[in-house]
Amino acid sequence: MDFMALEPSLYTVKAVLILDNDGNRLLSKYYDTELYPSIKEQKNFEKSVFNKSHKADNEIAFLEGLTIVYKSSVDLFFYVVGSAQENELMLMMVLNCLFDTLSQILRKNVEKRYLLDNLDGVYLVVDEIIDGGIILESDPQQVIQKVNYRVDENPLSEQSVAQHISQKLAVTSTVLQSAKEQIKWSILK
C-alpha cells in the first residue's frame, strides 16, 4: 500500500467552482495544475460534475477519483473539490463558509445576476478562504471583515456615487454661471 498518498497535507482543496443552472462556468479556480491542465479538460470536468449533481439531492459526490461537495441556490451551483482521501467535513466547511459569506455580501440574494454584478468581490471572498488549495479561513464573519476592509476602499459605494454626482452638479452650475458672466461682459463691450 502506498503510504505517501495517505499523508496529511495542507493542500486540501483541488478546485472551487460556481456554475449557473445550465452548467456554465461563472467562476472556477483550480489549485492543482496537474489535475486538469487545459481549459477544455476543465470544462469537460465541470460538465460531468454538473450532470451528476444538478438533479441530485445529495451534498457529496465522488467523480473521477475526487470528492466533491456541493450546494445549490436559486440558479447557482457551488462546488468544492478535494482528493478522494480528503475529509468531506473539511470540504463542506469551506463550502459553507463560501456560501454564507456570499449570502451576507449579496444581502441574501444569492442569484446569478447579483453574483455577476459583484464578481470582483466573489473572487476576493474565494481568495480569503483558500490560497493555493490551503484553507485559510472558515469563519464567514472573519472573511467579511477582511473583504469589507478592501471593499470600503472602493470609492463606488452608493453614498459616494451620490456625493460624486452632487459635486459634479455643483461644478457644472459654477461653470454655467461663469459662462453667463463672460457672455454678458462680451456683449456689453
From TrEMBL:
* Any Gene Ontology biological process: intra-Golgi vesicle-mediated transport
AP complex mu/sigma subunit domain: residues covered: 12-150
Describe its membrane topology: Peripheral membrane protein
Where does this protein chiefly localize? Answer: cytoplasm
Q: Which residues form the signal peptide?
A: none
Q: Which Pfam families would you find in this protein's record? A: Clat_adaptor_s
The cross-references to SUPFAM superfamilies, in alphabetical order and at most eight, read: SNARE-like (SSF64356)
Provide a GO CC annotation, any one.
Answer: COPI vesicle coat
Provide the family line: Belongs to the adaptor complexes small subunit family.
Its annotated function is as follows: The coatomer is a cytosolic protein complex that binds to dilysine motifs and reversibly associates with Golgi non-clathrin-coated vesicles, which further mediate biosynthetic protein transport from the ER, via the Golgi up to the trans Golgi network. Coatomer complex is required for budding from Golgi membranes, and is essential for the retrograde Golgi-to-ER transport of dilysine-tagged proteins. The zeta subunit may be involved in regulating the coat assembly and, hence, the rate of biosynthetic protein transport due to its association-dissociation properties with the coatomer complex.
* Name by which UniProt lists this protein: Coatomer subunit zeta
